[in-house]
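Researcher: Please predict.
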Amino acid sequence: MVVNIDDIKQLITSDIEEYFLVDKLFKFAANEDYIVKHRCYYVLREIASKYSLDYIVKFNDFNKMLEEDVLRIIDITTKLEVDSALSLRKLLYSKNPYLVRGEVVALAKNGSAKSLDVLLEFAISTKGRIIKRELFAELLGYMINKEPELSLYIDKQKWDNQKIRGYLRDMELKGPKYNRLSVFPSNDYWALKARCQGLEYGNFKNIVEDKVFENSFKGL
């Protein structure tokens, strides 16, 4: 199926039911056109539909997908109901450090104590060494800023688990500057990806993150 940006515009502004809108966007995201694909993923993130998780859990082999596509999917979970990123927890054991980082960030951005338990368990594991302690300190600090009661929860985990206590010793749990976290590994990540595709970054960003149709799907 040949899909273009106008097809997405028409879809978003139509009277299609939410479930079918999500279905179409995920199918359009399988399109070979780079801009169309990332426009679909971006719109899926913005509409934050409860139906998106039904599709996300069906992705079985992330090893066959492009890194940036997987990061887009991780990013969608940060906008869904609390702890949605747990559906992708297998990515914590990915061989790609960017995907591991993206997943731990997603768990922190949209997680409760349930996601916090997974983060702490991962942090003290051998695999967890792939993530710097400084980032974990920011992630935990971010979660505490959102839910202050998690500070007491973390203290309890420290005294219940010697490994957690050792890992967190002398760690200042302080969220990132301006309390901002991104599943993407750097500020210029998409600029580099666009250039690799022979695209001008400004044009790519304007099309993918176009807000013109925001009012069309905001009420979904």
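Model: The two ends are 26 Å apart (CA to CA).
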